[in-house]
Every structure is written in C-alpha cells, then in structure tokens.
Amino acid sequence: MQTVTSPHSGQRKTPRPRADALRNRERIVTAAREMFNEFGPDVPLDEIARRACVGNATVYRNFPDRDALVREVVCSVIDRTSEAAEQALAETGDTFEALERFVHTSADERIHALCPMVQSTFDKHHPDLAAARERFERLVDQLIDRAKAAGQLRADVGVGDLMTAVVQLSRPPAGTGCHTLDRFVHRTLQLFLDGLRAPARSALPGRAVTMEDLRQS
Q1: Which range marks the domain in which residue 43 is found?
Q2: Are 28 and 54 in contact (CB under 8 A)?
Q3: Domains of the chain: total
Q4: Is 190 helix (H, G, I), strand (E, B) or coil?
Q5: CB crowding 154-169: b at 16 or more within 10 Å, else e
Q6: Considering the entire predicted model, what is its pTM?
Q7: What mean pLDDT do residues 61-71 have?
Q8: Deepest of 9, 59, 131, 158, by most Cβ within 10 A of its Cβ?
Q9: CATH of the domain at 51
Q10: Which residues contact 26 (CB under 8 A, 6 or more apart)?
Q11: Does the structure show a pLDDT above 90 at 22?
C-alpha cells in the first residue's frame, strides 16, 4: 500500500515565541534604552538584566552580544519616533502643528541618546537598521514637504537641519544630570520651531542639510 505524502510533510513550522518570552525581550529593550540614556551604551549587561527583572541568561538568549542589543535599542527609538511622525501626519490637519507634535515627541523619546549609541561597533548597514532609518526619513520628509507646500515652513530647511536642532536642543549639557533640565526642553524647542515658520526673517548660510550630509560628516 502506497503512503500518500502531504506536500507539507517534513516541513516544520517555525514556532512562535511564547508570550512570556516576548514580554521578557521587551523588558530588556526598555531597560537598555533607559540605561543607555542615563549611563551610555557601555553600561554592564548584568545591570540591564537586573533592571529588566530577568536573568543574565535571558539577556544573552535574546541578544548574543552588546552590539545586537544596542542595534535593537537604536531601531526601537527610531521606530517609536517614526510612529509619532505617522500619527502626526494622520491626525493633524494643520501641517505646522503636525511638525511641532513630531519634534516634541522626538524629544520625549530621547532621540538625542542615539548619538553615542551609533558610535558603537555594530553594523550600521544591518537590514533592520536600514529599514527603520528609511521609514523614519521618508516620514519626516513628508512632514517637512507638507508644511512647505502649505507655505507654513521656510523653504530653506531640510530634514538634517530639523533633526540636528532636535538632538542638540534636547541633549543635557555636559556635567548636568540627564533629567534635571527636562522641564526646559520643550520651551527651547518651541522657540526653535517658531523660527522655522514662513516667511523667513533672514537667509540661512549654506544650503538645507540632508540626513545624508549628517551621515557623511
């Protein structure tokens, strides 16, 4: 008697991660994001495990080395900031208000903390990072283009100009605690945003800065 073989026999489905495993991974990434912001990307992994309330083995099971964890945190911050841009585009009819909401949310997500992290040795061209960066830049381009088309944003501003200012204005000065000046950040950012409104009161030196300019600097 001939055995009928299913076309799918012998193929094993990749098991889905258990819910508790996904929660542990999210706790690790959240704890790492907080501690990298507070202490820099060289914070001991066992300290991250302690804050995440997981064992060291759980950290290494999810992230085989520090570079893998740093890359995941960078992607997480970029993704969360991209979601803020998507929400601003979808929910706000006023184009400049959408841009303002994105800038303030970017500061709340502490996007400035990416700067020391990207100096790490992890692969800057990793597919996950490239996809997150491409999505982010596309969305911020849309915010800027829409505000320019509406005549609300000065025409000589680029994505690089915007993100440089957000990072610089939301980063604590050297020698101060990370959170001591948080209450002033949004006030300072709003002063900057008011300077972006059209019509421009002065001509900017040079040309609009792109994200590619920042990567090459």
Answers
A1: 18-64
A2: yes
A3: 2
A4: helix
A5: bebbbbbbbbbbbbeb
A6: 0.76
A7: 91
A8: 59
A9: 1.10.10
A10: none
A11: no
